[in-house]
């Protein structure tokens, strides 16, 4: 099972990286969303896959399952999901505002801070 | 030395810095009269160190200090012998006069308080430099003098010439300081010593070391930059951009002599070798000749003096390196004489400028009757500079000819160099001291006048000292010259020379020098024109070379920055991801940590495969989407597939959160994207697609391999078991994931909430706060070419 998950994680990463390498910020944003999932799955699989029971201690008469899922990666991922979501939302709004101001989402056209054809700094003292 | 007097000396060493702190406030209160109060500080320092003189004259030394970094054997310690004492007295004595002079010279300058502050800080640094025992302390003070010199040269920072001179001096002397640091570290490495006093007792340790030559070159790098030896002399004349008190104090009497001090200090351990006795006289001699020739070319009083200072420093280096005891005595006497006459002459040049409104020698004349005191000081100092009886300069000149002259060819060559240099300096000295005062009155200023007492006091006192020290030469020698020469030579030296002339070669040489000097003085105008023609013919000089060097560095860094900071996002991203792949793959390959070929499990359920396939299809659809909505929906598909995977493998909490977050993401993405008029697809040229896809696939592969490797090592369940065991018993929660989040790692979650909150606030701010149109600013930011 792990090998399939590993391959899937590989696909997630490849797609995320490919999207990131675009010149268009909106594609990079999609990449950011995919990258979050890629990392979460990576952590999840590293903690081993156990298809049996969720990590909940039974207090009733049924008793606790012998093998339960690893709770630690789940706790980490839960945090990560929320953080990457707020990050994603922030980036999205940033892109939106940048588009409003600069009328482009092409990173090569966004040249407010670094205008094309930089000239030498002044040589006098 | 007992603890109490240690504290007193420490306080004395720090007092200039303390005074510097209070100087601006005091100046606001007392205006230029604050000079009287502030001059008390160097005066008291002078008195304090004078009290050491009898002990040091008897062959003793004064040491003291405190531990600084005991683990590195670094102390804050001082070592006062004849050499340090003479320097300390010159620094504090002339310093007191300079502070007074500054008060008069910059009387109406609104930044006078700052000026006092800088010059007192410099005084403290210079004092620390000559008193330091520990190498580290010496180096720190050395660089402090460079920095305070930078501040003082650039005092008039509104003029570009000042700024250039300040930067130039800082780069040259600061760079030399770094060489010196390397040299000191090497000395420490070779000898294991960190203190001058111990080093001086180390005998031939350094001379016999295989690193001698490296140490020698590095120390020379420090000394030659600081003491403006040819071809690094150019910063010193440029430093004349500073107000005249600075030129008189730093760039004539004290700081530029730090390099000479260093050479004299290390002469007992580094000297007496072939490189020392060859390199020093050659550079010193070249500096002497070049300095005097360039001095003849100048018409500005300060620049004439500046170049003769360069020449004098060359002479001092020559004498220090020549190797005979007499030459060292000559150097010692010349150093003392030079500080007095050159300091006075600089101050005279300043007061002429102040009174007549110009420093151009061709536009000055006839000031003798108007400025009698200044004239007197000038003429006495020039006589001393020319080495004429009965001033202290006479003693120095006799002694140095005595030390240099012999019948070997090397000695004859050096004698000839000194002769020519002295003769030319004679001419320039008298040109400065006579031309502005004699002849018809032709000043620019409407009211040339005798200066304020603050201004004439300094040169008058120094001129008087030039005479008195010579008259009472036995006292001078007993307290200053002999102990200093002893320290420089490394064994006991007694100086006897007095105003009673001895007939012999030195006296004849002196007389010949005077005759030569008078001839040059008479033909100075045509000599100047000749030098100007020669220099114009050469065209290039180290000063222009400095500009070319600095411009070259700027261009180089511009090129390098332009290369690795291309301003193109995709290049940065490519570099980042290539590096990510490399950091994962390279260690695995190099250390043989690649995962074993995994056994394919046959127990894969169909629904598991199906969900993974859905995720993969969703991802590929994101890449291929032809319109926005498809892309958004596809993004949703892979997100929900991930949620299902979480669900399948026992993570209902994750699954639930993922569903919610993915839904929200899709909604806000749809909201935002429909408002942007963007190209629906991602057009990349074929070549770029291939490159990007390759990088992406290699990155993906790297993570696949890493993950496979991770799951192939045995699982360590310690932490997970801990949480399982204590979740209920300690934290009273059955859902372990929740307990970890809100209890075991509660602070973490708290931080996470803060992040979400801040992101929310930032989003709110971005949407709600609108600035006026930025079009104008963007237009203004376009390159204007």
From TrEMBL, chain A:
Localization in the cell: Cell membrane
TM segment ranges: 6-21, 28-45, 75-94
Identification of the protein by name: Na+/H+ antiporter subunit C
Predominant place of localization: membrane
Membrane topology classification: Multi-pass membrane protein
Gene3D superfamilies: 1.10.287.3510
Similarity field: Belongs to the CPA3 antiporters (TC 2.A.63) subunit C family.
GO cellular component term, pick one: plasma membrane
Keywords, sorted A to Z: Cell membrane, Membrane, Transmembrane, Transmembrane helix
Keyword Membrane (UniProt): yes
TrEMBL record, chain B:
Keyword set includes Nuclease: no
Coiled-coil annotated residue ranges, if any: none
Keywords (A to Z) from UniProt: Antiport, Cell membrane, Ion transport, Membrane, Transmembrane, Transmembrane helix, Transport
Spans traversing the lipid bilayer: 6-27, 34-56, 76-100, 112-130, 136-155, 167-191, 211-236, 248-266, 278-296, 303-322, 328-349, 370-392, 412-434, 454-475, 503-524, 575-592, 604-622, 629-650, 656-678, 690-711, 749-767
Subcellular location: Cell membrane; Membrane
Single biological process term from Gene Ontology: monoatomic ion transport
Record carries keyword ATP-binding: no
Chief location category: membrane
Residue span(s) of domain MrpA C-terminal/MbhD: 614-677
Protein name according to UniProt: Monovalent cation/H+ antiporter subunit A
Ranges for domain NADH-Ubiquinone oxidoreductase (complex I) chain 5 N-terminal: 69-116
One Gene Ontology molecular-function label: antiporter activity
Pfam families, sorted: MbhD, MbhE, Proton_antipo_M, Proton_antipo_N
Record-annotated MrpA C-terminal/MbhE domain positions: 691-775
Protein source organism: Flavimaribacter sediminis
NADH:quinone oxidoreductase/Mrp antiporter transmembrane domain: residues covered: 132-417
